[in-house]
Amino acid sequence: MRSRLRAGLAFAVATLVLVSPLLVWPQLASACAVCAAGRDEGTRQAFLWTTGLLSALPPLIVGGLVWWLVRRARAAEKLQTARLAPDAWASLSRSGGHAR
Amino acid sequence: MASESQQAPLVPSGVLGMLIFIAMEMMFFAGLVSAFAIIRAGAVVWPPPGQPRLPIEETAFNTAALLLSGAMLFAARRAFRRDRGRARIPLLISILLGAFFVLFQGVEWVSLIGEGLTLTSSSLGSFFYLIVGMHALHAVIALGLLWWTWLRLQRGWLLSSQLAVAEVFWYFVVGLWPILYLTVYL
Fold this sequence. Notes:
The complex is a heterodimer.
Chain A: H1 2-19, H2 41-94
Chain B: H1 2-5, H2 13-42, H3 56-82, H4 88-114, H5 123-155, H6 160-185
Helix pairs in contact in B: 2-5, 2-6, 3-4, 3-6, 4-5, 5-6
């Protein structure tokens, strides 16, 4: 599970590194429907920043939510292990060492 | 097996649902703010000629009231953990501050309309009423939710998860406002 996650993350980072140089030369890739509107520097910058914001927001939101859920799950797991540990010990000693 | 089925959920369903809804709303507001930023960047003069200047100072005061409302809700949660009854006053103050924010906005709108800023007067007017209006709509709905939690608290029926749902929504409304203020007003 972790190795898959790492591989996915590495792929995402590699893609970002390969694609990000295009941001430096946006005039080479004026393929969007509204690029004609961004002739002046101010509008071009606004398009650039808002495209970045709208692209980054969904993965940040979903990633943040998943990260928070995983953290909560781990904390709950730890708490449950701490609570169950004495019971498990008692049940093991009652059954003569055979876990049920 | 029985203990597994009795286990409390990791996140209450209501809170998870609200978080997903807020994720959607964040994208909605990001779209509005992006469109506004592009229109503003393309304008030669801002605010457009003949349009009034937005009331920055008054709104800064109103922003402080809204932030204080968020802080009071945080205090209400802390009190709720210790003794439920003690959460009543901070929760009520939070609601009153939120209501003050919405009413202050209403007064501000009336004065701006009087000065000639309307939905159709300019791109500033269109975006201002759309963005700030959508935020106000969210604030009113969130206040309704907070009021409902307060009533339940009064009757002793309020669950921690119900308070959490209202909290998440109100924190979204409070947290979003400074971003809108910086983008639209300044």
